[in-house]
Amino acid sequence: MFAWLSLCALAVIAGRAHAYPFYAPPPPGEDAASFTGDVELGFTHLSGNTNSQTLIGKGRLTWLTGDWTHTLRGEVRNVSRNGGTSAEQYIVAGRERYELDGPHYAFGFARWEKDRFSGYDQQATAIGGYGRDLIDSERQLLSLESGLGFRHDRLDEGQREFRGVGYGALAYEWAFSEHSSVEQELSVEGTSANVTSRSLSSLTARINSHLALKLSHEIKDNTNPPDSADAHTDQTTSFSLLYSW
After folding, report:
1. Is 111 helix (H, G, I), strand (E, B) or coil?
2. pLDDT in tens, 150-168
3. Distance (Å, rounded) from C-alpha 116 to C-alpha 122?
4. CA–CA separation, 210 vs 212, rounded Å?
5. Residues contacting 237, CB < 8 A, separation 6+
6. Taking the model in full, what pTM does it have?
7. Strands 180-190 and 195-206
8. DSSP strand E in 116-194: where?
């Protein structure tokens, strides 16, 4: 029930379906609407020898005020297999980007996430730093950024830990046709206890100005998770429908 309610909330804040870098979306063009965003929904159901269903919902809203770009996003993932839950994750994040002279910008973000099988009850992260758009053309975008911050971990056993974080990220997007694009996003967050890396590879094909289909593969790896974690690495392959306005 919580997953479905969260998904409804994502739909409310959604907008334009465009695969901006997840870590710091660049502002829309001068002729674009002030509010943009996207909503993504993927659902699969298998029955027979294996009974399973997978729900993935993502939403993002971006708006502009002067040189500032503000972004809110949320994600819901739920996988059940043979009557039991095998994956359950929630993410809520906010990000600020401030345009500097040239292809430079400053950024800051805060993220809360809860992953039922990660060994953490929940994690809260805040990071700020510097970014640069190395390529920003009509068909290609390549951005890099780095920063510092801190993370608060609450373990399943109730223990709390505060750690400094070093951060680096990369995003590349190539619109190889009028209606199709590929994206690759990478980020690394390092602490004294472990290194968490994230990767998102996706192919998007537009149906019309409001609808698109998206095939994506996500990887999240923790080099040293808590002992109660099910695995070091989580991988998700999904086929989703995107709606935008």
Report:
1. strand
2. 999 999 877 899 999 999 9
3. 8
4. 7
5. 216, 217, 218
6. 0.82
7. antiparallel
8. 120-136, 140-155, 160-174, 180-190
